[in-house]
Design goal:
Blueprint: H1 16-22, E1 33-36, H2 43-51, E2 57-62, H3 65-71, E3 79-83, H4 89-95, E4 101-107, H5 112-116, H6 142-148, H7 151-162, H8 167-178, H9 186-196, H10 208-218, H11 221-235, E5 236-246, H12 249-263, E6 284-290, H13 294-299, E7 307-313
Parallel strand pairs: 1-2, 1-4, 2-3, 4-5
Antiparallel strand pairs: 5-7, 6-7
Helix pairs in contact: 1-2, 7-8, 7-10, 8-9, 11-12
Length: 321
C-alpha cells in the first residue's frame, strides 16, 4: 500500500490532558468504544489509547491525507482510522456494526502542520498555492472558488464566516483583481485584502478574517459541525460524554446552543395535569467549560482562543418512553 509522506512540522495538541480527562476513561468505561473526530497528528488519540483497556475500541476520523498517513502508523488493534469527516460517523459506525459509543471528542482546530506548510495555502505568512482544502484529494480549492464565485456570495462568505466588517470592499477588490489576473497564491490574496481594509486591528494581519472565512467555506466546516453534532448525540450511549474544542466564536456558538437545546428543556404550565414522568426531560447534562491555562498559552500561543465544552448524555427516567 502506498502511503503519503508526512512533512516534519511540529504540532502541540491543545487541551490534551483536559480533553482526555473529560472522557472519564476509568472503571468499566475504560473498555468502551470512543470516537476521536479529528485525529490531526494523533495527540488525543494516543493518550486515549494509553488509558483504554484491552477490550476497548477507538475510531478516529480525519479529512487530511497527511493525518491519515500519520494515523496508519499507529500499531494498535483497538484503533481504526477513517479517511473522512466526522460528519460521516453515523455511516461509519453502522458499517462496523457499532450501535452506540461511550465518548466522543471533537477538536475543531486546524493543526499547526497544516498552517506551517506553505504548500497547503492556509496561511498568509508564507507564500504558497491558494488551496486551503483539508482533504487535498477532493473538492474545489480556494483559488478555484475565488475564480468563479459571484461578488455577492464572496461578500456574504467573508462577512458571515470571517465576521469581517470590510467584506464588501474585499469582495469587490477580489473581483476586480481576478479580471486582470488569476488569484492563485496566498500572498496575492493577502495583498488584495490589505489594500481593501483601511483600518487594522492591533496585532492582527488584515487578511486573518478573510482567510478564516474562505477556509471554513471551502471545507464546509460549519455544515460538518452541524451534522456531526446531531450524529454524535444519536450515537452516544446513555452516560456517554461529548467533549468539543472550538477555536472561534462561530463554532463555539453552535456547540453552546446545541448543548443548551439538549440540557435546557422548556416545561409546560405547571398547572396542567401532567404526570412528572411525562414532562419533557433534559437529554444532556452540562459538565464543564474549560479554557487553556496561562502556562499552556505561553507555551503555545495558538491555544489562546480555544474553549472546550463538555456534556453527558442522560438516561431516560424510569417509565419514560
Amino acid at each position: 500500500m502506498t502511503t503519503t509522506a508526512v512533512p516534519e512540522f511540529q504540532h502541540r495538541t491543545v487541551l490534551l490532558d483536559e480533553a482526555v480527562d473529560a472522557l472519564d476513561l476509568a472503571g468499566a468505561r475504560a473498555n468502551g468504544t470512543f470516537i476521536d473526530g479529528t485525529f490531526g497528528r494523533g495527540g488525543h488519540s494516543r493518550l486515549i489509547l494509553s488509558r483504554l483497556g484491552q477490550d476497548a475500541r477507538l475510531i478516529a476520523f480525519d479529512k487530511d491525507p497527511q493525518a491519515i498517513a500519520t494515523a496508519e502508523q499507529v500499531a494498535d488493534s483497538r484503533f481504526t482510522i477513517v479517511h473522512d469527516s466526522f460528519a460521516t460517523m453515523a455511516a461509519a459506525l453502522a458499517e462496523r456494526g457499532i450501535g452506540a459509543v461511550d465518548g466522543i471528542l471533537l477538536d475543531l482546530g486546524i493543526s499547526s502542520p497544516q498552517v506551517d506548510d506553505a504548500a497547503r495555502g492556509f496561511s498568509f505568512r508564507n507564500d504558497g498555492p491558494l488551496d486551503m482544502r483539508m482533504d487535498t484529494t477532493r473538492g474545489m480549492s480556494a483559488a478555484e472558488w475565488l475564480a468563479t464565485e459571484t461578488e455577492q456570495t464572496l461578500e456574504k462568505v467573508i462577512r458571515d464566516y470571517g465576521e469581517e466588517r470590510f467584506a464588501f470592499q474585499i469582495a469587490k477588490a477580489i473581483v476586480a483583481r481576478r479580471a486582470v489576473e488569476p488569484i492563485s497564491s496566498t500572498r496575492q490574496l493577502a495583498g488584495i485584502v490589505a489594500g481593501a481594509v483601511k483600518t487594522r486591528e492591533k496585532g492582527k494581519d488584515p487578511a486573518t478574517r478573510t482567510f478564516q472565512a474562505i477556509r471554513i467555506f471551502v471545507n464546509k466546516e460549519l455544515e460538518d459541525l452541524e451534522a456531526g453534532l446531531n450524529q454524535a448525540f444519536d450515537a452516544l450511549a446513555p452516560g456517554g460524554i461529548m467533549a468539543i474544542i472550538s477555536f472561534h466564536s462561530l463554532e463555539d456558538r453552535m456547540v453552546k446552543r446545541f448543548f443548551a437545546s439538549k440540557a435546557n428543556v422548556a416545561q409546560p404550565d405547571r398547572r396542567l395535569p401532567i404526570r412528572a414522568v411525562d414532562l419533557p426531560q433534559p437529554e444532556m447534562k452540562l459538565l464543564a467549560k474549560i479554557k487553556p491555562s496561562d502556562v499552556e498559552v505561553d507555551a503555545n500561543p495558538r491555544a489562546r482562543s480555544a474553549v472546550m465544552r463538555v456534556a453527558r448524555r442522560l438516561p431516560l427516567p424510569e417509565g419514560a418512553q
